[in-house]
Amino acid sequence: MQTCYIGLGSNLDDPRSQITRALAALGAHPSIELVRTSNYYGSKAVGPGEQPDFVNAAAELRTALEPLDLLHALQTIEQQQGRVRTVRWGARTLDLDILLYGNLQLSSSELTLPHPRLQERPFVIVPLAEIAPELPLPDGTCLDRLLDYASREDVWRLE
Predict the structure, then answer these.
(1) Is 95 annotated as catalytic?
(2) Could you read off the pLDDT of 37-80 as tens digits, one per residue?
(3) SS3 of 68, please?
(4) What whole-number distance in Å separates Cα of residue 93 and Cα of residue 14?
(5) Contacts of 1 (CB under 8 A, 6+ apart)
(6) Which of 95, 117, 145, 157 is catalytic?
(7) Is 83 a catalytic residue?
(8) What pTM did the predictor assign?
């Protein structure tokens, strides 16, 4: 079993419900154990055009799935919840990203680990640091050190 961290985001079709349903689907998957989840956070959309704000969260998983199999399982959940991939960084019902898969570093046409923009995105850093503040990234950086970068104006906790 490998420990993994997943970023979740949604800004269409009742985003909170989308995240809640995705977490339930992750927990129900036979090869995935949902260990813990962050609170929900709001963030402004990053991408083209006018978009609604996002709801974001992070989850710690334990899985027997290999990285690409996990990616495909996440994409299946996205599709089951109406994800349509038309515009890069466009509005979406659900986005599930593998942020970290243990300490694995991988670069393929389908998957890059750790997530290539993890350290640049407050909407990823803040929820991830909530559940694993002392987690070292593969380059040795601890998440709690990245919180200074993650402006609280960019990400807010939802009640």
Answers:
(1) yes
(2) 999 999 988 766 678 999 999 999 999 999 999 999 999 999 88
(3) helix
(4) 8
(5) 33, 62, 63, 64
(6) 95
(7) yes
(8) 0.90
